[in-house]
Amino acid sequence: MNEREQRTDEEDEPPMVEMRGVCLDFENKPVLRQLNLSVRRKQRMVIMGQSGAGKSTLLRLILGILRPTAGGVYFQGRNIEHASRRQLNNARARMAMVFQSSALISSMTVHDNLALPLQELTHKRRAQIHRTVEEKLSMVGMEETGALMPEELSGGMRKRVAIARALVMEPELILFDEPTTGLDPVLSAVIDELIIDLTEKTHATSIIVTHELKSAFRVATRIAMLFQGRIIEESLPEGFRGSHNPVVEQFIEGRTEGPIHNGS
Ligand SMILES: Nc1ncnc2c1ncn2[C@@H]1O[C@H](COP(=O)(O)OP(=O)(O)OP(=O)(O)O)[C@@H](O)[C@H]1O
Ligand SMILES: [Mg+2]
Question: Which residues have a Cβ under 8 Å from the Cβ of 228 and sit 6 or more positions away?
Fold first, then answer.
């Protein structure tokens, strides 16, 4: 297939995720206001924004854990809010989330943490589950750690295991909430490379929330900036870097003067 045919193909299908006019209030406090965002298949969309901007909230809306106060969230062209329980479960089985805290179950071995979704959500047999777990652990360079408990792992190892766990159901969409926050610069680079490598190998689409500029520019195929409840800029990384939007400029340069105020 030549490049032009491929592009037409991808433009014909609905976006992997689309948010249209999404508003979300928490106890009458608006967090998202008329937010629009479209994420196409195989993109690695980085969402940037200051602390408290609503980035994690945005991911929870896509997962269907939260419902918008107004507007619609679409997964592969279908409005999540109008989905039946079965359709929602079906959609959720095609998404995975890597939580900032890694969220491994502390009383279970690494192997059992990965096996759990397969036991609960599939009809795979024990031997098959074991093979899948081993395969995903080896994809993140963590083979032979299956018998360890989460507390025996370093922060970086835990992050890898959390990523491996996200892969076990072979998701089409992976959501990463601050995957490199709290890691040293070398480990951050390793995790970023892993995200790029794995999403390319598995043809997954990803949405990566971060406020680390270095990571953002390393992994993104597109970058979006969330500010005052809206996506105020969405572009290729080069376009983002050269943006004249004062909010983006201030964020990139880390200036204290400008439209972004602490706590606003
Ligand atoms: N369950 C909730 N109930 C009430 N308010 C909430 C709830 N969850 C989030 N908020 C509020 O919504 C706003 C956005 O929170 P969110 O966690 O999405 O921000 P964030 O951009 O992910 O921040 P950070 O970078 O610090 O993780 C914050 O003001 C927060 O206090
Ligand atoms: Mg957050």
Answer: 33, 264
Is 52 close to ligand 1, i.e. is its CB under 6 Å away? Answer: yes
Nearest CA to ligand 1 atom 8: 57
The β-bridge relationship of strands 78-79 and 29-39 is unpaired
Decide whether any atom of ligand 1 lies within 6 Å of the 182 Cβ. no
Residue where the block lists tokens 């520019």: 217
Distance 165 CA to ligand 2 centre (A): 20
Residue nearest to atom 17 of ligand 1 (CA): 56
Task: Indicate whether 264 pLDDT > 80.
Answer: no
Residue 93, token pair as written in the block: 């089985």
pTM: 0.90
> Which helix (H) or strand (E) element contains residue 93?
helix 85-93
**Structure confidence by residue, pLDDT tens digits, 118-155:** 998 889 999 999 999 999 999 988 998 999 999 999 88
For 194-234, give the DSSP string.
HHHHHHHHHT-EEEEE---HHHHHHH-SEEEEEETTEEEEE
pLDDT value of residue 9: 53
pLDDT at 11: 63
